[in-house]
Amino acid sequence: MRRALWLIGLLVLGGCRSLQVPVGALVPPEEATWTAPPPLVVRWRRDVEAAPVRALVAGRILLVTNHKGDVHAFELPEGRRRGVLDVGRDLMGVPAHRKSLLVVPVALDDAAVVAYDLYRRRTVWRRTGDGVEAGLTLDGEVVYVAERWGRVYALDVEDGRVRWAQEPEATGLDGVRARPVRVGELLVVADKRGRVVALEARTGRLRWRQRLRPVYADLAVADGLVLVPTTRGRLVALEAASGATAWTLALPDTSVHLTTPVMAGSTVYVAGGDGVVRALTLRTGTVRWTWTGGAAIVASPVVDTTAGVLYVGDLRGRLVALELTSGHLHWETRLDGGVLDLADSPFGLIVLTRPRHVYLLQSDHEAVALRP
Fold this sequence. Notes:
Elements: H1 2-12, H2 14-17, E1 41-47, E2 52-58, E3 61-66, E4 70-75, E5 80-86, E6 96-98, E7 101-105, E8 113-117, E9 122-127, E10 137-139, E11 142-146, E12 152-156, E13 162-166, H3 168-171, E14 181-183, E15 186-190, E16 195-200, E17 206-211, E18 220-222, E19 225-229, E20 234-239, E21 245-250, E22 262-264, E23 267-271, E24 276-281, E25 287-292, E26 302-304, E27 309-313, E28 318-323, E29 329-334, E30 339-345, E31 348-353, E32 357-362
Antiparallel strand pairs: 1-32, 2-3, 3-4, 4-5, 6-7, 7-8, 8-9, 10-11, 11-12, 12-13, 14-15, 15-16, 16-17, 18-19, 19-20, 20-21, 22-23, 23-24, 24-25, 26-27, 27-28, 28-29, 30-31, 31-32
């Protein structure tokens, strides 16, 4: 009987034991630097078994989460599979990584956050809660978590110990989908009703509140500003210290969902469900240029300042490179499936597409390697 129970337990934990990362693979390679001047070619394509959500690069390891609750690991640049970690159900937010520890937010399961040692192949700690749809924010030895129904807390990344916690009754948050951002001494969190709060990162004490439009995409920080994209055609720049509005980009079409903005120098780049990419001046919000594609864009663009281009992918599988200074179309290609997420890496451009694939694109002209 005892042996039967042991075998059952082994099968249940089998997903957690199947991910194997070689020792040293999590150390960033010194010789590799991110630059991918177009034209790009597909180095490889891999199947992640369900709709991919987010990509995280840790050294030579690419970690891809999916809506089924798995984390798929691939070794870069070859794309060699390193296994699958079955964490829970529906992974929606970007994980965090420190040394050999992978910390994953879980939206639907008996754990809100799971910390897994990639070298030792074991769960180090797990924290129960109401589920985490937002990504995690890691700062040194502290990981900041915003649960779905508005509870915000800081955990010790090594052992999961709670350093502080703020309940929804204090913050007023409800339905957090956007990853919190750390800016100076503050942690800024927004919810799907448009409420934005700033908490002291060390203690969790409330510093200021704002009320905007619904927020689903992650926030961004630049030059003392918190950039808040909304689902109602608004990009709002808030002064991080006070929460005061510095400027607002207000689109005529209030049904447009905006992506998480990205920055290069003094320019902010943001795309949207209307298929338009906009470049704005960081301090004033003045539109410098726009580029209009043919389909909705949900993935945040990727900046390559060395190549001088902005990579953008849409839900029809079109991937383009726009010139940073003018927005002129520099290069384009087509992928199988709509683009859900883009990420840079020391080895090339990572592209997640529906229904279930991850691509690595590089600037070389090696033979295309497609595997189902």
